[in-house]
Structures are given as structure tokens and as C-alpha cells.
Amino acid sequence: MLNRLDEQSPDALLALIKMHAADTRSDKIDLGVGVYRTDDGGTPVFAAIKRAEQQLVDEQDSKSYLGPEGDMGFVNALMPYVFGEDATMGGRIAGMQTPGGTGAVRLALALGQKAGMTKLHMGTPSWPNHAQIINDLALELVPFDHAKPDGTADLDAVLAAIRGAGPNEGILLHGCCHNPTGVDYSDEDWAAIGDAIAETGIFPIIDTAYHGLGHGLDEDVVGLRSVLAKVPEAFIAYSCDKNFGMYRDRVGAFYILSDGQETLNKAFSNANALARASWSMPPDHGAAAVRLILRDSELTQVWQDELEQMRDRMRLVREKLADAGVQGSVDMTPLGGQNGLFSVLPVSKEQVAQLRDDHGIYMAGSGRINIAGLTMGNIDKFIGAIAEVTAE
Ligand code: PMP
Q: Residues in domain Aminotransferase class I/classII large (predicted)?
């Protein structure tokens, strides 16, 4: 039976990790893997997480099963950060814990499909797993351009997608720190997007995987909140794997917004059933640690200070790149106005290979770079290599 299966291509980024690991050059630079790195190149566990984990070890008295909705203390503690002071928007939001943001995206799309959604509009390029999940569910993906060649968001393209959508269609938007482009909509863009969604009735799904890594915890959800204020229904997929550094512990949440209590309960019961049929219940440890942080004002401060340090460091790297301006055929100026962990450089696959072979610089074939892979110690080498490899 198994010989009927087609071979699947391996994850390109995992292949890149292996190549980078095998490279013996001491000044090699890894801009591939999507994790935050300090200026020393490490990805340490947050101090706030270490303290919360110690508390868990000391105080947790059972590891007995929770339900498919996971740790509701975690789910609720996160809500004011996402939705604001009126954290349930007047009782219109219900949420559950998921295995990472990936689990939340999967649940959002599966539930949308169960409710009759057939087509999903999405700006491209996007996080590759979005398309994989869409394909796996056999939903129809309708792409539109996310960014313009000048490195800013293509507002006209997203508005045209929304205005042209028929019934039973959804749109997947990145809440902030767009992966891979780093190009976010402005607050004014979001206002126009929210108005257009409200007019046409397209179903919004907002994926927020980098909350707090752009401009700040409040600033990064202005767009999300402005859309939610205008629409009757929406899904929100949320990841704590970047903003709490929990990657492998798989910490995420899925929220449903609805304008009717009965509809909300029905939708939640379906999400619950889908979760049960998929992973039964999410892993507890990471979410429990995040709950302990968010329920303790001192730990919350420690976490927010760490998040601010990450943000400031990435801003500094972006400023240095932007200051370098045009290098060879690449204008780095737009990177200064982009957000989060990633940006895409206009380099060809051949140039990416040359950067790897000649300079030990590892990045995705698409030209996506992890901003946090650059440090004050290697950024000049990187800029010089771009100038050399892309010189006409
Ligand atoms: N959405 C986007 C846009 C992402 O970039 C990622 C992570 N790379 C996720 C969702 C999923 O995050 P997690 O690791 O929590 O599953």
C-alpha cells in the first residue's frame, strides 16, 4: 500500500540548517531558520519563562488530562493583550489553547471549511505552511500581491481581493510582522481593510504569530482590533512561540469572534470537536508557564522587558541595513520601515547560492533573511557580500 505514495520534497529550510551545520567556516552567517537570536547568536530561554518553569516544577500537583480547550487560564490571560481592555468584546469572543500558532491556523481553516468556506484569499508570498494547510484541506487558494516592488504593502491588491469576493470566501491576513516580507499594513490601511471586509462580508482570519516583535504589544494589534471592531465574525490564530521564545513547546491559541451568543457557542463546540479529532488536547507545559507569567505582575514586567530588548535589537539591525542604502543592485532602505523577524531581499536563486558558497551566508532561496541572524559583529560582512554578489 505504502508504495503508492509519492515522495515529498523535504522542507527547504531544514536542508539549509543541515548545510549550515556542516559548514566549517568560523564566520558563517545563518539567516535561514526563523528564530530570534541575541547579538551573541544564541536563542536563550526567556528569564521570565525560566522563573515560571521553576514555579511549575515546585507547585504543579497533577498532570492529569485537561480538555481539548487546554489551559483556559492561559487562553483568558492572553486576551487583554490581544483584544484590549474589553477582552471579550462584550462576551463575543471564545478561545481555546492550540499546539502552537500552526494548530490555531489549522483549526481556523478547518472550522471555516466546516462552516462552508470554500475559497481563501491570501497575500503572497506568505509563510509556506499557510499554502500547505490550505492544500491539505483542499480549500481553493486565491492569491493576491501582498507587497509592492518598493517594499511597502499593496493596499489596492488586498482591497480588490476583498471587494471581488463572493459568498463563502475568507481572507487570511497577518496581524503584524508579516512572514516573509516584514511588510505590514499601516493603521490607515487596516482601517480601509476593515471597512471593505465589513461591506462585503468576506470572512476574516487574522494570523498573529509575532505580537510584540514589531513596534510594541499595543501597537502591533491596532490593525487586528480595528478590523474586529467592524466585523460580525472573525477567527484569530495566535502564537506565543516567538514572543515568549517557546518554539518547541508549541504554545498557541485560537479565538472566535461572533455577534451572537448561540452562534459563538455552536462555533466553539465545533472547534472543540475538531481539536478532539486532531490532537485531542494541546501540550500543557508551555501554556502553563505563560499563564504564570501573565498572572504575576513582576514576571509580566520581566517578560515585557525581554520582548522590548528583542524588538530594539531588530530595529537596530534594520536601521543599519537601511543606512547602507543601495548595495550592488539591492536597495536596503525599505528594510528600515519593515517589521519583525523577516524581510525579503530582491536576490536571485543564483545569488543566494553564491552568498552561501563564497561567503558562508545562508538564507532561503526566496531571498528571505532572518533579521535576528545579523549582529553588530557580522552585519558589515553581510552588507559587503550583498554588494559584491549583486554588483552588475
Ligand atoms: N503563522 C506565521 C505567519 C508564522 O510565521 C508561524 C511560525 N513560523 C506560525 C503561524 C506558526 O507558529 P508556531 O511555531 O507557533 O506553530
A: 27-386
